[in-house]
What we know:
heterodimer, A: 115 residues, mainly beta, globular, B: 113 residues, 7-stranded mixed beta sheet, 4-stranded antiparallel beta sheet
Amino acid sequence: DAKTTQPNSMESNEEEPVHLPCNHSTxxxxxxxxxxxxxxxxxxxxxxxxxxSNVNNRxxxxxxxxxxxxxxxxxxxxxxxxxxxxxxxxxxxxNYGGSQGNLIFGKGTKLSVKP
Amino acid sequence: xxxxxxxPRYLIKTRxxxxxxxxxxxxxxxxxxxxxxxxxxxxxxxxxxxxxTQRNKGNFPGRFSGRQFSNSRSxxxxxxxxxxxxxxxxxxxxxxRRLLRQFFGPGTRLTVL
Lengths: 115, 113
């Protein structure tokens, strides 16, 4: 399985942008990059996903490096509610079946937001 | 639409007992996956069902089993409980076979004494 590397923790100030990095040097051509987050005492929630191009939605932006070996989740204005563990996950969407078709969570990055 | 619901939310059992957890996916979703979350191992995939068929299984012993009903509701069962089975058990549903986006429930907190 392709692996991801994320910092264990990051801190941010409220209302400032946050850039959460993820390295995935062994990514394959058919791996999609997914981001999920888990707020305290809740199940994970989907944030965003992408393949090659940068992606934006109402929650965040995903910036993908040209060689796809790294990506960055961008929260444009952090709020206290954004304090959570953020997971960067690779999933082979083209070869669905077997263990490749499921979300494999790493340790994630614990984001703290200071008021 | 109502989200993914899991029952019960909390459960206390003793070693050797068995337990059944229930998951109701979002209406219209046909895929249900189960995950175990512990402080030491993090989130680990247990198994996934699509249209009543188990499609994938994680690396867990045979004591862990599941099934899916025709209405897409799913149950997982753990027999002969061990202390190490204490965990948060999460269910996720998806509308597509390719699981591009999974919706997670709040989980069932199982404590084994």
